[in-house]
């Protein structure tokens, strides 16, 4: 599976801390219930954990969701 990272029309940063134990369904519920955004409109949603050294991404590729996970070993993110 190859992902074209130039493909998303929108990229959303979900502000605040997100429970990193959530999977695809849990993150999709956060978007749908709290923000009322359409999950299937070629958007990438980025979530940050409480420690600011890991984040998750949720992307619909037309066939299913892709969940990305990144953890920084040295350093952290400045997250809104």
Write up what this structure looks like.
The chain is an alpha+beta fold. It is built from one helix and four strands. The N and C termini lie far apart (32 Å). The model has no long low-confidence stretch (mean pLDDT 86).
Using DSSP, what is the number of strands?
A: 4
Coarse shape: globular
Residue share in helices? 10-25%
Largest sheet: 4 strands, mixed
For the terminal residues, how far apart are their CA atoms? Answer: 32 Å
Whole-angstrom Rg: 12 Å
Low-confidence stretches: none
Order of helices and strands: EHEEE
Quick rundown:
The chain is built from 1 helix and 4 strands; from the N terminus they run E-H-E-E-E. It has one helix at 24-35, and strands spanning 10-13, 43-48, 54-60, 65-71.
List keywords for this structure.
four-stranded mixed β-sheet; alpha+beta; single chain; 4 strands
Question: How do the helices and strands line up, and which of them pair or pack?
Answer:
Blueprint: E1 10-13, H1 24-35, E2 43-48, E3 54-60, E4 65-71
């Amino acid at each position: 599976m190859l992902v074209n990272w130039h493909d998303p029309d929108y990229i959303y940063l979900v502000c605040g801390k997100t429970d990193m134990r959530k999977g695809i369904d849990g993150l999709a519920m956060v978007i749908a219930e709290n923000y009322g955004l359409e999950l299937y409109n070629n958007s990438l949603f980025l979530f940050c954990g409480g420690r600011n050294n890991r984040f998750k991404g949720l992307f619909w590729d037309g066939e299913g969701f892709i969940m990305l996970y990144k953890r920084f070993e040295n350093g952290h993110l400045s997250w809104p």
